[in-house]
Design brief:
This protein is an alpha/beta fold. It is 32% helix and 20% strand. It has helices at residues 16-24, 76-88, 108-121, 133-141, 155-176, 186-200, 207-216, 249-255, 289-297, 316-326, 366-370, 397-410; strands spanning 2-8, 29-32, 41-45, 48-52, 65-68, 73-74, 97-100, 104-105, 204-205, 220-224, 264-270, 273-275, 310-312, 314-315, 330-334, 344-352, 358-359, 373-380, 414-418, 426-428. The longest helix is centred in the middle third of the chain and has 22 residues, at 155-176. It binds inosinic acid.
């Protein structure tokens, strides 16, 4: 039995898509357990670049099953667009995709509320992706969510009644709180979603049963996390977080698989740090030459929203906390080659707070975290190309030293090193499967 969870160690965009795609070779099933189409996973192979927002990257490999678990919030319109887009590019999407019929749906009012709320917040906005993720999870937790299974058989009658009261409440909110005349029509939404359900129905099943039976039969499962540890709704830089459990533990609740089935947790961390959206970022270098260099060399532009990512030095306490929160058994360090031209590289090993006290972990409260000044350790750069290297022995000494130091300070071994965007541009230090 091998069940590996892949999660991000920072604020998302760590390059999980590539690592998952790479490890899929050894897995039978790739399952997503949280988030929705706020994610943007870039996969490069055969000189083509694919960006996936919902469907697990396992979809590209023949003979593998891609699963969307119950913890994912699904925008059926975005899902069908993604399926159609992949099929148009010649990618098979059929029996190789299974979606939980208990996954909650992103409804039109969720998308509207996400955007209106951000506008109302003004300078205090979260900087969401505007995909309706937060409002959809709110309704799920408030027991006002709509699931695929609601459209099945007799459930439809109940759904009509529930949908009426849910939408009436949204329409009141639209007028009284958001001050818009946006109006959602119950019949129209029901008909639209019932038609979407018909198209998605062939992919639906009880994915918890499917996954557990596969695990019991000795199949290898890869759980693909979206966003990152510090965007987790419980443990992230609250309130500048997403609305789901992005940690490895989320794989269990988000797929209906018990914790005793998980065998490994691999954390993906960029060789530096990036963040999109608002929120604290102590090692941020925006507006500085090094920050711009990282942004340009790393092509740090959001795969979902096209926003330029904020860039900064590697932050040890951030990743060390991710190792602890996720029980990580190994780290995959991505985009090492982006640092190739630097003479010196800094890594934050702690912070100084406003009283001048040294902290070795970041406070969770966003206000306190925003005031931190990082304490850096300087390491020599390697000033030579690591692009495309596939052997550890080929890495320059200073690059090895950099990775060793990250491993020493975070407490997790580096098992994979990514030296370029494509599958082949990877150093496998230790095999994960
Ligand atoms: P939401 O998930 O759209 O509600 O956005 C909440 C926060 O999470 C914002 O700061 C987003 O920029 C961030 N976020 C959401 N999804 C991703 C992702 O896939 N990568 C990086 N940041 C993300």
């Amino acid at each position: 039995m091998t069940c590996v969870v892949i999660v991000g160690c920072q604020w998302g965009d760590e390059g999980k898509g590539k690592i998952v795609d790479l490890l899929t070779e050894h897995a039978d099933i790739v399952a997503r357990f949280q988030g929705g189409n706020n994610a943007g996973h870039t996969v490069v192979f055969d000189n083509r670049t694919y960006i996936l927002h919902l469907i697990p990257s396992g979809i590209f490999r023949k003979g593998k099953l891609a699963v969307l678990g119950n913890g994912v919030v699904v925008d059926p319109i975005a899902l069908l667009e993604e399926i159609d887009g992949l099929q148009a590019k010649g990618v098979t999407v059929g029996d190789n995709l299974r979606i939980s019929d208990e996954a909650n749906l992103i409804m039109p009012y969720h998308k509207a509320m996400d955007k209106l709320r951000e506008t109302l917040k003004g300078a205090g906005k979260i900087g969401t992706t505007g995909r309706g993720i937060g409002p959809a999870y709110e309704d799920k937790m408030a027991r006002g969510g709509v699931r695929f299974s609601d459209f099945r058989g007799n459930g439809r009658k109940d759904l009509c009644g529930r949908l009426k009261s849910i939408i009436e409440e949204k329409n009141v909110l639209m007028r009284s709180h958001f001050h818009t005349d946006a109006f959602f029509d119950v019949g129209e939404i029901y008909d639209q979603y019932a038609a979407l359900y018909q198209r998605i129905m062939p992919y639906l099943c009880d994915t918890s049963v499917l996954l557990n039976e596969a695990i019991d039969a000795g199949k290898a499962v890869l759980f693909e996390g979206a966003q990152g540890t510090h965007l987790d709704v419980d443990h992230g830089t609250y309130p500048y977080v997403t609305s789901s459990s992005t940690l490895a533990g989320g794989a269990c609740t988000g797929c209906g698989v018990g914790p005793t089935k998980i065998t490994d947790v691999i954390g993906v961390a960029k060789a530096y740090t990036t963040r999109v959206g608002e929120g604290p970022f102590p090692t941020e270098l925006t507006g500085q030459a090094v920050g711009e260099l990282l942004q340009k060399r790393g092509q740090e532009i959001g795969a979902t929203t096209g926003r330029v990512r904020r860039c900064g030095w590697f932050d040890v306490p951030l990743v060390r906390e991710a190792v602890r929160l996720n029980g990580m058994t190994g780290l995959a360090i991505t985009k090492l080659d982006v640092l190739d031209t630097l003479e010196h590289i800094e890594i934050a090993v702690g912070y100084r707070d406003r009283e001048g006290e040294i902290l070795t972990s970041m406070p969770h409260h966003a206000g306190a975290a925003a005031e931190l000044v990082p304490e850096y350790e300087e390491l020599a750069g390697w000033e030579s190309s690591t692009r495309g290297l596939t052997k550890l022995s080929a890495l320059p000494k200073a690059a090895r030293r950099y990775l060793d130091r990250i491993s020493e300070l975070t407490g997790a071994p580096v098992v994979l090193i990514s030296t370029g965007p494509s599958r082949e541009e990877t150093i496998v230090v230790e095999s994960v499967f």
